[in-house]
Amino acid sequence: MPETTPTADPGAPDPRQAELGLRRASANDISALKTVLAEAFYEDPIFAWLMPDDRRRAARLRHFFSIELRHMGPPRGEVLTTNDLAGAVIVMPPGAWRAPIRATLLEGGAFGVHLGRAARLDAAIEWHHTRGVSDPHYYVRDIGVLPRMQGRGIGSCLLRRILERCDREGLPAYLEASSERNAVLYERLGFHLTRELRVSSSPPLRLMLRPPGRER
Hints:
This protein has 216 residues and is of the alpha+beta class. The protein has helices at 16-20, 30-40, 45-50, 54-72, 101-107, 115-132, 154-169, 180-188; strands at 23-24, 78-81, 87-92, 138-145, 173-177, 192-197, 205-210.
């Protein structure tokens, strides 16, 4: 997800937030946002490995993100979007980063015959998450922007809103970057690589942590 280069202080409020109209997504936004995230992740290396059938990937991604938005959003987590629904971020507060079993089971249908791949990757992600950041933290579970709207700083603004909260509360933020391009953006926002994860033939998944502002 290419984005514009952020300003010098990664934790500083971004004036574009007001222009974009960042807000919490409502239940009425889920139908649109599942498509937004599906389009954003269509060419993502990890999802292309998990859903190699190009003809069915879009529908499978819509199914997957519909469950993500419904089960990892309110009241368990938070979904932020823009007034024009150009992008979205799903963030989990301290102590709530694990997906409920029901959500995991429902998402399994999105992977078809490659469910085994998804299960192995999910288990590895959870294992390393537990050992990589045991203290209270915010977990950026999913973030995506419509392909035609990328390069305008929307993803940066969405993520900055979360990072401002992390700095106010003195808590780290954690995420997994599924492409090198995304990892570069996250590094500019204060994240650093803690591990590069691969499961069998999967592309690399970069596990990244951002300390709160006063510790960077």
